[in-house]
Specification:
Blueprint: E1 2-6, E2 9-12, H1 31-44, E3 52-53, E4 56-60, H2 70-79, E5 88-97, E6 101-110, E7 116-117
Parallel strand pairs: 4-5
Antiparallel strand pairs: 1-2, 1-3, 5-6, 6-7
Bound molecules: zinc ion.
Length: about 130
Amino acid sequence: MGEDLGDQRFRIVDFSVDAVSGTRSNFVRNAAQHDQALAAFFDRTGADYERFNYLGEWHTHPSFSVHPSLQDVHAMQDLVDGSGGVRFAFLLIARLRWHWWFEASTHLFVQGHVPTPVDLILEPDMLEP
Ligand SMILES: [Zn+2]
């Protein structure tokens, strides 16, 4: 979930964690848990959907490249296919290497367009332990 900062910049302000579904090599989102997290987020942000809204999906690739897999690309393209009202979505894939190095990729998915890599900027306070 994120905040629209304007000028095509977004801040990740919250996220849901599903520690039950999926495996180390296959991501599956629990839709009911995700819907609950999103509803709680909208309550906290006063249902200000123009400023605070769903931004996209994230998961880890603990054992391989943070580049989106073909399955990831298809899942995200299905998400923005127009049937669910999602016009665009980001996919963040993260990995922790050697127990301390945060590695991530972020791609923007828009209906009818190829995925576009976008910059992910870590805010200084996010780097504190
Ligand atoms: Zn993946």
